[in-house]
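Tokens for chain A. Residues wanted.
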């Protein structure tokens, strides 16, 4: 919730700022605010405030966040990119759309890019992640979609270890391309979606970020995805784990420098200094909290909690911290409010600029691992109750996040009535999803020429 008197004033300020934005949008498409949505892949919520040896891991973004509206209890509806991005673009829970790594958006589902394009926006997407792709229907509504990871002119092949080749798209390359397109002389309002891959593994930051947070005496680590996967679900040497987290921190530091530079460019530009800018992640990252590393495999908090920051145009107070519980389904309705357009009835999320964003919320989250050796999971978060169900075995676990925020103590055997109520709520939410009647989208397996690149990121068996 918004904390104390200052939180109440913040809510009023947000509402006033939103009203100013809506008025500006209604005066015509050219007066509508530009919107820039930046996704930093695999960024844990706690990374934004993390310090190592007194040095902040993400100094640029944490400083920029001081002038933003920051949601400290934001979550992704999935631990994987394609499912989370589908939910964010459509404001629909994943069990309703059936999106997976190999199945795209259903026909007839509206995306926020379509809504904004119909409102007069020029829309463009720039993706360094091969799972944010037209193959899965994520180009729906975008005038332009750049799939940089599979573009040989924008990506670079790297060799992490002799048997572990991979590709990277440097974030500065993606930002430079987006910046050039923003200044192409078209005066229509812009919606730019920019999805960088860092700090997603392989954790291979270039100098001067490499070795910045090296742990004295820690072993060298191979931070490629095959190596990380080889340690998954096994007892971990604390020194190895500390060294791996240090490499992730260094990769986050690299992402922070690139994002910070782009945000500075926006802030100094006569036009885009007035843009609405959103910075968030698509999911978190695991470091052995529940015997899991990387992401894609669980619905525990370390893989769901994300940073979410909003810099809003217009007058009124538009900064501060909110502990309202929000998730990525809320992004599209809020962008509609900023643009001054009515959201489609399809959207399930809520406008975060409303004066009362703290009402009771129920969330669904899923894990749909690309590797068959991992079971699928579904979770219901009805705070403080969280229910996790293994969809392969039917096993269920129950947690109280107010007393046990990192899900250490399973209450399913101790509180059967609470478990039964959580199961009832989960089934009710799933029934709502089925009632939409959405048929699964067409199968969309990656083409053969992309499989090697996907394997290097751990997305194909």
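Reply:
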């Amino acid at each position: 919730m918004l904390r104390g008197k200052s939180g109440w004033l913040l809510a009023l300020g947000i509402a006033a700022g939103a009203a100013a934005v809506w008025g500006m949008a209604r005066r015509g498409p050219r007066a509508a605010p530009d919107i820039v949505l930046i996704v930093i892949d695999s960024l844990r919520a706690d990374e934004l405030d993390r310090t190592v040896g007194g040095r902040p891991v993400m100094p640029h973004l944490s400083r920029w966040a001081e002038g933003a509206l920051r949601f400290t209890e934001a979550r992704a509806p999935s631990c994987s990119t394609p499912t989370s991005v589908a939910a964010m673009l459509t404001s629909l829970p994943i069990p309703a759309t059936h999106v997976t790594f190999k199945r795209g958006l259903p026909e007839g589902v509206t995306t926020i890019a379509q809504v904004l394009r119909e409102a007069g926006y020029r829309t463009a997407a720039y993706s360094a992640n091969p799972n944010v792709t037209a193959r899965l229907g994520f180009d729906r509504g975008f005038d332009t979609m750049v799939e940089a990871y599979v573009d040989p002119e924008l990506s670079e092949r790297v060799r992490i270890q002799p048997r572990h080749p991979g590709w990277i798209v440097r974030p500065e390359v993606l930002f430079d391309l987006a910046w050039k397109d923003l200044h192409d002389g078209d005066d229509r309002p812009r919606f730019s979606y920019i999805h960088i891959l860092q700090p997603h593994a392989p954790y291979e930051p270039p100098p001067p970020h490499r070795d910045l947070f090296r742990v004295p005496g820690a072993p060298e680590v191979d931070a490629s995805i095959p190596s990380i996967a080889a340690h998954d679900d096994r007892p971990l040497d604390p020194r190895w784990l500390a060294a791996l987290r240090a490499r992730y921190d260094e990769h986050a530091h690299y992402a922070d420098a690139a994002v910070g530079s782009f945000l500075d460019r926006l802030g100094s530009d006569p036009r885009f200094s007035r843009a609405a800018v959103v910075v968030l992640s698509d999911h978190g990252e695991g470091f052995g909290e529940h015997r899991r590393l990387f992401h894609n495999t669980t619905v525990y908090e370390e893989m769901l909690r994300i940073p979410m920051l909003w810099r809003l145009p217009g007058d009124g107070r538009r900064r501060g911290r909110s502990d309202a519980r929000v998730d990525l389904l809320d992004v599209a309705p809020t962008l509609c409010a900023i643009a001054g357009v009515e959201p489609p009835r399809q959207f399930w999320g809520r406008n975060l600029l409303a004066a009362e964003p703290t009402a009771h919320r129920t969330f669904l989250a899923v894990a749909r691992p690309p590797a068959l050796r991992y079971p699928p999971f579904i979770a219901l978060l009805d705070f403080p109750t969280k229910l996790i169900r293994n969809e392969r075995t039917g096993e269920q676990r129950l947690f109280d996040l107010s007393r046990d925020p990192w899900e250490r103590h399973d209450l399913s055997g101790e509180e059967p009535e609470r478990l039964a109520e959580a199961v009832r709520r989960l089934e009710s939410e799933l029934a709502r999803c089925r009632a939409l009647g959405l048929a699964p989208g067409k199968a969309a397996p990656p083409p053969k020429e992309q499989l090697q690149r996907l394997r290097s990121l751990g997305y194909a068996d």
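The radius of gyration is 21 Å. The longest strand covers residues 320-327.
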